[in-house]
Amino acid sequence: MTITRVALCLCFAFLFNVAQGAKVTFRNNCPYTVWPGTLTGDQKPQLSTTGFELATGASNSVDLPSPWSGRFWARTGCSNNNGKFSCATADCASGRVACNGAGAIPPATLVEITVASNGGQDFYDVSNVDGFNVPMSVTPQGGSGECKTSSCPNNINNVCPAELQMKGSDGSAIACKSACLALNQPQYCCTGAFNTPEKCPSTKYSDIFKQQCPDAYSYAYDDKTSTFTCFSKPDYAITFCP
Q1: Which of 31, 225, 226, 237 is least surrounded, with the fewest CB atoms within 10 Å of its CB?
Q2: Omega into 214 within 30° of 0, i.e. cis?
Q3: pTM of the prediction?
């Protein structure tokens, strides 16, 4: 083999190693069908799937490149009417099962993952900053370091204050809005004069979310107990209704 061909092989091997990311496997333990959505951040290309149906007990997976940053969520109460797909909660308003680069319309429970390059430090969390619709968890598979499960296992809709409730056609709470979304005041949104951690502490509303799901983000500056890390290229399991 010539020096040039050796150099090309080494170059392609390096690029392949950099591109290798994580496999995310979704599992639906809810007693109802969900339609997961995916969104890649930083204006990068979207994943091979940006939305799909996941029946009770079913699983599906998607590969992430490295580095990568984005979010995942579950849509509920979805239907296709005259060719237009829509959902009762966390809709991405694409009109299709695939979200195609559109994010979830709050309220929506989110799993956020940042995959590092070269087996560095990944960050991941469950977030209720945009409200809550479905219990979720994310668990690293392999890797090194703490690599703990981040989970929001409780149904916050059952304790959601009336002023935060998003109601379904039968009048029941199908999602729980964040105080920022429902009340649109800077002390709940951590904006304006409340735009630093010191000036934007937890509130009676975020405390409800935190009591139900201690591991999950309850408001914008809830970093201390809600950010999780793992090294050495783990895969991830995301479970709906863990």
Answers
A1: 31
A2: no
A3: 0.91
